[in-house]
Specification:
structural constituent of nuclear pore, Nuclear pore complex protein Nup85, mainly alpha, 5 domains, Nucleoporin_Nup85
């Protein structure tokens, strides 16, 4: 890592790195850090953040400022590591678009697979009988469309005659790898013309091969830059090298366009260079008429297509005869431009399949491989012969260092599923492996047996399920993607359900939207018990953190009678106590939330009656509201008569009612009501003799005060009735 104190400062390294490296030890990747701190930096702390991001904490030295105060500072910056597994896609938003976009194709494909298995009652390998590859191809195309970006193609779409390549934002290696898998595993219709599919693939993705090594694409890019400044282009050796290289890999459109830039086509040169122009045009015609063993060509591509091998062989022999005839023509002696004569004859040798010229004009084994398909072995069929040819090309052009796309292609040609998975995992990450397995097993019994066989050393799961679990774990580790992890977990028959429950239990419950999302997932996958437990957890969490209303709400949703009863018991602690108006409102709200269903939380009927009594008692005030006092008396008598009123609350209720029992304007209770309350006091005196009796939290003189008040009220009531 390198860190500048400011934009104008020179870089200094956190760790000293060698400025040069050997071929075996590539240059270390340097990540610049901008922190705006005054150097020197005294301490650095590095820790992992989410994904492939580092938190780098930088602390500067203590320095004395001009006013005598110490100046110390620090910064925390994030450094994103561009490690392997991104497939050339560094934008997080684009990766999330791919991740979310691939969920639907994957889920639909799994549903079709399960439906086909249920209908046919056949093992998965027999699904080819119902044209399973069509489903796989549709799935592959949907995934492929998500990977599309603006790309540089071999065919030109720009009208400028000197523009041979439209150099835009390059394609990504993830899409290149996916298309390779699609060509060999999903697209069964193209099996008869696999070499031609590889020609198209190289035209799109040759630029992705090593930046440290020459390739046809880079040669043409350099040539295009020089075309602006070169007057007589046919005098430039780079022109003929680029032409020969483009021809060797089958980029015929570029070859024709470059040949048409030849100086002999200029109007003022036609009279003096007629033979030379005729030779150039003859090569243009031969290139344009080159036979291609394929059903059709995309718009703008050159060549003549043949669907069956018989017609192609006839056309191939005829075309080769014309190339040979031109190569032996006497017109070469009349051509006065040496570079043109040598360049055109080199191109003819390439079309005739001269291995030395093909090797000289290609720069890696894949390009040489394509050249052999086009000009030496156009009838190559079957992966075994294709793999043998690949080994020969690697021997002629050995790899200077490993390339993921080349390694993937070699694993496919060698029918080595383990190598294919290893390359996908190493270079493109768990997303690629999880979704590519569906292509590897499409009609391929060998791959299917390998990937879906249960292994004891993997915990009793298959390789397919293991990779899905790994990918689901990656999704579950990020707050923006955890919601789609259940789709992949539910496709894992062994461990998926258990891990899904663990994932759902670990989601935070303090935010309503997140909780509702978790409950929705439980509903989708019919996890009723998990949903009930999560709602209980949410209720307890809110209650413990002071959000008592929310806690009661979620516990009611879960029908948790045990905890609701415990909450109701806590509310009993307010009975008989002097509480503030604000506390009473909170207590009243909780009682209201709990409702009056005694089956759900026993004893709540008493709390509701006590709430009405307490509200009426608060309205009495200083003895001036007689109507409120009579309502309070009615509530008191109702409470004392009700069997739902616990005996331990009799004395607190009567003590709260002292103001009513000693009403100055006259007795509020008649003789019968007063006797009822006196009888309750008598029962309470007898209850004190029991060992389980609990003394209420009241003043010592509470009982005597209540008894005296009732006696006075009884006397006043008798006198008033007489």
């Amino acid at each position: 890592m390198q860190t500048p104190a400011s934009d104008s400062d020179s870089h200094f390294s956190i760790l000293p790195l060698a400025s040069s490296s050997s071929q075996d030890q590539p240059l270390a990747v340097v990540y610049p850090i901008r922190h705006s701190l005054t150097r020197p930096i005294s301490r650095i702390a590095i820790s992992w953040a989410r994904g492939n991001t580092l938190h780098v904490s930088l602390f500067s030295h203590h320095q004395h400022s001009g006013d005598g105060e110490e100046d110390a500072g620090g910064r925390v910056v994030e450094v994103k590591l561009s490690g392997a597994g991104n497939g050339g896609i560094d934008n997080d938003a684009q990766w999330r678009r791919i991740i979310y976009g691939s969920v639907t194709p994957f889920a639909v494909f799994q549903n079709r697979k399960n439906s086909a298995l249920a209908l046919t009652k056949l093992p998965a390998g027999a699904l080819s009988d119902v044209e399973w590859w069509e489903y796989a191809m549709e799935y592959s195309r949907e995934i492929n469309s998500l990977l599309s970006t603006a790309k540089s193609t071999a065919s030109s779409t720009v009208e400028d005659p000197r523009t041979i390549l439209a150099v835009d934002e390059g394609p990504n290696s993830l899409k290149a790898a996916w298309e390779l898998l699609e060509i060999f595993y999903a697209d069964k219709q193209s099996q008869a013309w696999l070499p031609e599919r590889l020609v198209d693939w190289l035209a799109d993705y040759d630029g992705l091969f090593s930046d440290n090594q020459s390739k046809v694409y880079s040669k043409l890019v350099d040539l295009q830059k020089d075309l602006v400044y070169v007057q007589a282009i046919e005098d430039d050796p780079k022109y003929w090298d680029g032409l020969s290289s483009a021809l060797a890999v089958g980029w015929l459109e570029i070859v024709v366009k470059l040949l048409r830039l030849h100086g002999s086509y200029q109007l003022d040169q036609l009279g003096r260079r007629e033979t030379e122009n005729g030779l150039v045009e003859a090569v243009v015609v031969l290139v344009s008429k080159m036979p291609r063993l394929r059903p059709e060509l995309p718009a703008g591509r050159l060549g003549e297509c043949y669907r069956n091998k018989t017609d192609f062989i006839k056309a191939w022999e005829t075309w080769r005869a014309r190339v040979t005839k031109l190569e032996c023509s006497a017109f070469w002696f009349e051509c006065g431009h040496q570079q043109t004569k040598e360049g055109l004859r080199t191109m003819l040798q390439i079309m005739l399949g001269n291995s030395e010229h093909l090797s000289a004009r290609t720069y890696n084994w894949v390009e040489l491989y394509i050249a052999h398909f086009l000009y030496i072995r156009p009838f190559t069929m079957g992966l075994e012969s294709m793999y043998s040819l690949a080994q020969k090309c690697i021997h002629l052009k050995p790899l200077s260092h490993h390339n993921s796309l080349m390694g993937l292609l070699l694993g496919i040609l060698g029918e080595n599923t383990e190598v294919v998975l290893a390359e996908c995992s190493k270079a493109f990450g768990p997303w690629m492996v999880t979704h590519a397995i569906e292509l590897l097993t499409a009609g391929n019994d060998q791959s299917e047996n390998l990937l879906r066989e249960v292994h004891d050393n993997l915990g009793g799961v298959s390789i397919e399920e293991l990779h899905r679990l790994v990918y689901a774990q990656v999704l579950a580790s990020h707050q923006l993607t955890w919601q789609i992890a259940p789709v992949y977990l539910m496709s894992c028959m062994k461990l998926g359900m258990g891990l899904l429950e663990i994932l759902l239990y670990r989601q935070p419950v303090h935010q309503k939207q997140g909780l509702l999302k978790t409950l929705e997932i439980c509903r989708l996958y019919e996890l009723e018990s998990v949903s009930s437990n999560i709602v209980k957890i949410a209720g307890v969490h809110h209650w413990k953190h002071g959000r008592k209303g929310s806690g009661i709400f979620w516990l009611q949703q879960a029908q948790d009678e045990i905890r609701l009863n415990k909450i109701a018991q806590k509310l009993f602690d307010f009975v008989g106590k002097s509480i503030s108006e604000e506390s009473f409102k909170q207590w009243e709200g909780l009682v209201q939330l709990l409702g009056s269903d005694t089956r759900t939380a026993g004893g709540l009927e008493f709390l509701h009656k006590y709430r009405d009594f307490k509200k009426a008692l608060q309205q009495v005030g200083d003895g001036k509201a007689k109507d409120a006092a009579r309502r309070a008396v009615e509530s008191l008598i109702t409470l004392m008569k009700s069997p739902s009123t616990p005996q331990r609350f009799w004395l607190p209720l009567l003590y709260d009612s002292l103001k009513l029992l000693t009403w100055q304007e006259g007795p509020l209770l008649d003789v019968m009501q007063t006797n009822l309350l006196l009888n309750k006091l008598q029962e309470l005196s007898m209850a004190k003799l029991r060992p389980d009796y609990v003394e209420p939290d009241l003043p010592p003189q509470a009982l005597s005060s209540v008894r005296l008040a009732l006696a006075r009220n009884l006397g006043r009531a008798i006198l008033e009735e007489q």
